[in-house]
Specification:
Length: 454
């Protein structure tokens, strides 16, 4: 079997030549993207971390289920198949969203070979992989404030007109992970383990960053869905899964999939675990402690298919990958704070429609107010549960990442997470560049809600 790393690097090298955008004005008007090709040290060379003992991509704490080093790069970053006969399910490492997104951008129509004709500039920087030495090597902890410094210098020196034309307002890139992990102030000390200052670099302040979780106030960030393990390549594969989720028998009222260690202080996760321990007739728990679920979707997806509601409490940060797994399974998500999703994924899950496909129970009422989650969910009429499940499955194609090279039939059936993210970026960039052209700088930084109704 060919080495996945070799195949991945070979593809990137072959695909490195810019592709011309379409000549016709109508199909590509406002949609032309110039791919800002960078030296390999900013992307392809970083994939070699997977083979280094110091910075392995595979999670050593979950060695029983994690893909071996470099195997995570199989299938252009989707990871190895969960089963030899699988055509849609992969052991996906979320940290490889950047190269996978790059692969999908290379497939798009309307790529421009001239940056002066482009509406947006995609920067092919694998930020999360470049951050690995800073967050894993204690000797480099104090240098983490310099993350992105080399990239900023290169963009300023190499073909500087590309950056200066719009002062960076037309540039965008993808960062695997939460924005909080890249937002420590450069001047703060001591440095926090696991964080860098990439998003605080003034040279990149006008870029649009696509992260799997954004902060609420910085205008340059926008959240896109956490990658799941489901990546269909054909319309029949997508329809077959949705049909399975639709007809699945759901004998469990509610499910929690996540870490099961009890917190030292009262919080919503501890309340959920305590209630599930007392209501085994209504609640199921999937232990995902220590990364057990990271590369093993079968461990939790079967349980989600059998549950009516999936509990999505915040963890270290407000959002969870489990939310998107639940949506794919047709398991109605239950949120305990607005920051968990409602204020995060407006391009993919319209905020005004959350009540149609999810339940919100304020965490304070559970932790301190005596509200019982099971009793609240038992009170939802069965007809309403079926209606919400129908809406959830309607949302599912919007939050999954199709496999690269998917069929024209599947692409024509609707937009997936990548398509919607790029559409959102183009809208945002168009608003900013129009404000520049009109001499209205106050509009460049407008914090408008740019979610799209379905």
């Amino acid at each position: 079997m060919a080495n996945p790393l070799f195949l991945f690097l070979l593809f990137l090298n072959v695909a490195a030549a810019p592709r011309a955008g379409a000549d016709g004005a109508d199909p590509c008007a406002g949609r032309r993207i110039y791919i800002r090709h960078l030296p390999p040290r900013f992307n392809a060379d970083l994939l070699r971390h997977c083979g280094a003992d110091a910075f392995p991509l595979a999670d050593a704490s979950a060695a029983a289920t994690s893909a071996p080093p470099c195997e995570s790069l199989a299938n252009h970053g989707l990871g190895p198949r969960t089963h030899p006969r699988s055509r849609s399910w992969y052991r996906t490492d979320a940290r490889l969203l950047e190269p996978f997104f790059h692969r999908r951008i290379l497939e798009r129509d309307c790529l421009a070979d001239d940056p002066a004709r482009a509406d947006a500039v995609f920067v092919t920087y694998y930020a999360a992989l470049d951050a690995l030495p800073y967050v894993l090597d204690p000797a480099l902890l104090d240098a983490s404030a310099r993350h992105g410094e080399e990239l900023a210098g290169f963009l300023a020196r190499d073909q500087p007109r590309i950056l200066s034309r719009r002062q960076g307002h037309d540039h965008f890139l993808v960062v695997s992970g939460s924005a909080w992990d890249y937002a420590q102030s450069p001047g703060e000390g001591p440095r926090l383990w696991g964080t860098t200052s990439l998003l605080r670099r003034p040279e990149l302040a006008n870029f649009t960053f696509l992260t799997v979780e954004s902060r609420m106030w910085p205008w340059q960030e926008h959240a896109i869905p956490h990658p799941t393990s489901f990546h269909p390549a054909t319309l029949p594969h997508l329809r077959a899964w949705l049909a399975r989720a639709r007809r699945s028998r759901r004998g469990t009222l509610m499910l929690f999939a996540g870490g099961v260690s009890r917190p030292s202080r009262p919080n919503i996760r501890g309340s959920i675990l305590a209630e599930c321990a007392n209501r085994t007739d209504a609640c199921a728990v999937v232990d995902c402690s220590g990364g057990k679920c990271s590369h093993d979707p079968g461990r939790y997806m079967r349980a989600m298919l059998g549950a009516k509601f999936c509990l999505e409490p915040p963890g270290d940060t407000p959002t969870r990958r489990s939310t998107f797994d639940a949506i794919l399974a047709g398991c109605v998500p239950v949120f305990f704070e607005d920051l968990a999703a409602r204020r995060q994924y407006g391009w993919h899950l319209p905020p005004a429609r959350y009540d149609e496909f999810s339940v919100h129970i304020p965490k304070e009422t559970v932790v301190f107010g005596g509200v019982r989650i099971a009793e609240t969910l038992e009170a939802v009429p069965e007809a309403e549960v079926r209606r919400m499940r129908k809406r959830v499955l309607e949302m599912a194609p919007r939050v999954l990442y199709r496999r690269h090279g998917s069929t024209a039939e599947l692409r024509g059936a609707g937009k997936d997470a990548v398509d919607l993210a790029v559409d959102g970026v183009l809208r945002r960039i168009r608003r900013r560049t129009c404000a520049q052209d009109e001499g209205r700088p106050e509009r460049i930084y407008a914090m408008e809600d740019d979610s799209v109704e379905m």
